Amino acid sequence: MCGIVGVVRRPSRREPPIGSGIVGELDAALRALGAGEPVALPALQAAAERVAEVDRLLRGVPGVLTLLGDRAAAVAIEDRAQRLGERLAVLELELDVAGAPPEELEARNETLVRAKDALWAVQRDRLRAARAVGDLAGAGASAAAIAAFTSIQVALSAIDRLEVRGRDSAGLLVMVRDHRLDAADPAVVRLLEARLTDPLFTSGAVRRSGDALAFVYKAAAEIGELGDNTAVLRSAIRDDELLHLAVAADTADAVILGHTRWASVGIISEPNAHPLDHRESNGASEAPLVIGALNGDVDNYADLEVAEALDTAAEITTDAKVIPTLVSRGLAAGRSADDAFRTTVATLEGSVAIGAAIADAPGCLHLALRGSGQALYVGFAEDSFVVASEAYGVVEDTST
What is the pLDDT averaged over residues 212-232? Predict the structure, then answer.
């Protein structure tokens, strides 16, 4: 099984909504629903539309910026949402005794469902996501950092949903470009030096290529509860000073690739947890940077290791390792990122879904399906693509 997630984001083209305006929309919805008198269908429809508009306005980075930047508005929104939920529950109970014609009952029920769905999204998705981003980013985070941590939160939330596909380990890659960190700064050198040399790409490792820094966070446990892995990942991300410095620059851009694993080839361990990097035991650290994740099985991975003389560390026994290694070799041979990725996928036998982040292809994730039995969904959100192995991995941010 396993699950792949990914987020590719562009700078938002929308200004953050005004907090008082959001509260005003919810107040208007409450007024439309009244306090006790029968509510006409047009008033119910107007309330549903206002709640849906609030959900739309609070989506994405603009909504997170508003909820984090205007605490009073965030508290008021939560209060109004709670009151709306209570009122909608009463109206739903009244449907059973309304005595209205069947056509009107159907219309009222449909409108109530729309209102409840939008309110659920405001309470359980928008407000929750903003709190989680604030926890990850910390106080005083820049707008660029908020955007990066919003992408990270989207991916972590998707991993939580996808853990039903496998959860013996999980990993998250944050590929940051245009970070503007000074590589000669002693503080940066101190934070980087030990993390660049981890040969097994375990949690906390960093890879560097040009202006790209690739941070990876991993958790692996044979026995655990749902949510344990993402709790470990969140803690590591929240406490990573170097990551916070990297995403703080106004120019910073972060691409996210994550995975939750059901081990089929290779033991349960951090070195085997996806995403995996390209590095070989005898390989030069300046080889083209490629990081990949796999669902399914590469049936001919052992043959490829022998045929291509891959020098994989003994601790890494998962079949997924051949993917970033072969793509990196293709890049080193002069192929373009697209061609190196396609050529590698064409050599694989079995049923696979693949996600890869390539330093030579900024702002992109490469995706592939081969064989049968695997799937990848790409959700079209306001300013981002959200990738997941199941539709329920993208629905928090988009229904498209």
Answer: 92
